[in-house]
Write a structure and sequence with these properties.
Elements (H helix, E strand, L loop, with lengths): L6 E3 L5 E3 L3 H14 L15 E5 L2 E4 L4 E4 L2 H4 L8 H13 L10 H13 L4 E7 L2 H16 L3 E5 L8 H6 L16 E4 L14 H19 L4 E7 L14 H12 L2 E5 L14 H4 L5 E4 L11 E6 H6 L15 H17 L1 H23 L3 E7 L2 E9 L4 E2 L11 H12 L2 E2 L1 E3 L2 E4 L7 H19 L4
Parallel strand pairs: 5-16, 7-8, 7-9, 9-10, 10-11
Antiparallel strand pairs: 1-2, 3-4, 4-5, 6-12, 11-12, 13-14, 14-15, 14-18, 17-18
Helix pairs in contact: 3-11, 4-11, 7-8, 12-14, 13-14
The structure holds pyridoxal-5'-phosphate.
The site of pyridoxal-5'-phosphate (PLP) has 16 residues, from helix 5.
Length: 466
């Protein structure tokens, strides 16, 4: 679509050619004057005003096109302005815009049924939320009520959301600022990470085995009788696209069964096709007790998330009230977009498309860069979910920028990101990593163009690498 877009429509429907300086200035003035942004010091941010989006591309007010290699926040699985999703929302708004959660309607029920049909094992019931953090909050609440226990184990190097329990569960360094106020009852452990192993392992198999021994040790020390749940991202997302090594998730399942612990899979980022499966656990043949989802369920067109619940846990609540509820749970506009998402996935073969592009285009290209770019230390991923870990020294694995760098320390990564943007690709960068996470509807030509831009940007990183 790049190049076909010549302007944008404002909220009254009037068309404007790109380059309307006054319109852009108004957006910037309103934003900087009154929008309080997340995750940054307010004085340091300068958000890019976006005028239009279509498919895998969005445009700023000057008409610069960006191929979105980060799918916004890895949520825009079906791309911008997908006609089926837009139409579903418009039609739903025209017939019943909202109902409260204790009533039933057709799209909410149909979406729950369709999710249950593709969910693994006996996960047949869906509790809807507004997003991913509150899905994790409610999953933990279910696990605690179901087991009568209170602690929850989650990984260092994880992101589970930014509400109170979700940020306590999060093992990303960004949580530390919130830590004095965060909920208790959370214990962190080390997950597998072969490239920077905590366990001095020599192979992914050994990493899995040692990480499981460590987890069992943590369970023993904390006391199995106190542990309600283990919450893990099936493929760790923001903290590095850490693909679980062979046997690891099976081992987690076995430990949960052995000690009466609820296995909660956080699939907020990887669910709904990101790695070419409905749910990432499907790739590993593992059935958790609860799966949390959000983002890809409807590409974030209207906020939606939820918990998919096993029959055993759902039936526990047959005679026990589940004390969780949100005014907008299962919002009809969001659910209509969710049902449309299923229709598009099935009609257009989205899962097959993701698997094909991942295996045929992304995997060989990124692995090829190990030979051509001294700054590429590690390549990890599956489907359309990949990370390149950038280093100064491939022997020592010294990262391109220091851990959790900011200011001048972060300059090399900022230069890499700037090179991508100058080439018309919006990258996902975090710490010393570049992620490849485009919309799942991306075409092969678009994907190759974005990868070419990453390839060129890596020469910027190479200057720092020995
Ligand atoms: N869990 C994971 C794995 C995520 O990646 C995210 C968001 O990035 C969340 C939970 C939180 O989701 P939300 O921002 O919708 O609350």
């Amino acid at each position: 679509t790049t190049g076909t877009c010549t302007g944008y429509t404002d909220r009254t429907g009037a068309f404007h050619a790109f380059g309307d300086v006054a319109a852009e200035q108004q957006v910037r003035a309103d934003d900087r004057g009154h929008v309080f942004h997340s995750w940054s010091a307010q004085a340091q941010i300068n958000p890019l005003p976006i005028a239009a989006g279509e498919g895998s591309t969005f445009w700023d007010y000057d008409g610069n096109a960006y191929l979105d290699f980060s799918s916004q926040l890895v949520n825009l699985n079906l791309g911008h302005q997908h006609p089926d999703l837009v139409r579903a929302i418009q039609e739903q708004a025209g017939r019943l815009a909202t109902i409260q959660p204790s009533m039933a309607n057709d799209v909410r029920g149909e979406l729950a049924r369709r999710i249950a049909e593709v969910a693994p094992g006996d996960l047949n019931s869906v509790f809807f939320t507004n997003g991913g953090a509150d899905a994790n909050e409610n999953a933990v609440r279910m696990a605690r009520r179901y087991t009568g226990k209170h602690k929850v184990l989650s990984m260092y190097r994880s992101y589970h959301g930014n509400t109170n329990t979700a940020i306590a569960l999060t093992g990303d360094p960004r949580r530390w600022a919130n830590q004095p106020y965060a909920d208790g009852g959370v214990v962190h452990f080390f997950g597998p990470y072969p490239y920077r192993s905590e366990f001095h392992s020599d192979s992914p198999e050994q990493e899995a085995q040692r990480a499981l021994e460590h987890l069992e040790h943590v369970i023993a020390l904390e006391g199995p009788a106190t542990i309600a749940g283990i919450l893990i991202e099936t493929v760790v997302g923001t903290n590095g696209v850490l693909v679980p090594p062979p046997g690891y998730l099976h081992g987690v399942r076995e430990l949960c069964d052995k000690y009466g612990i609820v296995y909660i899979a956080d699939e907020v980022m990887v669910g709904f096709g990101r790695i070419g499966e409905w749910f990432a656990v499907d790739a590993y043949g593992v059935v958790p007790d609860l799966i949390t989802f959000a983002k890809g369920v409807n590409s974030g067109y209207v906020p939606l998330g939820g918990v998919i619940i096993s029959d055993a846990i759902a039936h526990f609540f047959d005679d026990v009230s589940f004390q969780g509820g949100l005014t907008y749970s299962g919002h009809p506009l969001a659910c209509a977009a969710g049902v449309a998402t299923f229709e598009v996935f099935e009609r257009d073969g989205i899962l097959e498309h993701v698997r094909d592009l991942g295996a045929r285009v992304v995997e060989p290209t990124l692995n090829g860069w190990l030979a051509t770019h001294p700054s590429v230390g590690d390549v990890r991923g599956q489907g359309l979910f990949w990370a390149l870990e950038l280093v100064r020294d491939r022997e020592t694995h010294e990262p391109l920028v220091p851990f959790n760098a900011s200011g001048a320390d972060a300059a090399p990564m900022n230069e890499v990101a700037a090179a991508c943007k100058a080439a018309g690709v919006w990258p996902f960068t975090h710490f010393n990593r570049m992620h490849v996470a485009p919309p799942l509807v991306i075409t092969e030509d678009e994907l190759r163009r974005g990868l070419d831009a990453y390839d060129a940007a890596l020469t910027v990183a190479d200057r720092y690498a020995s």
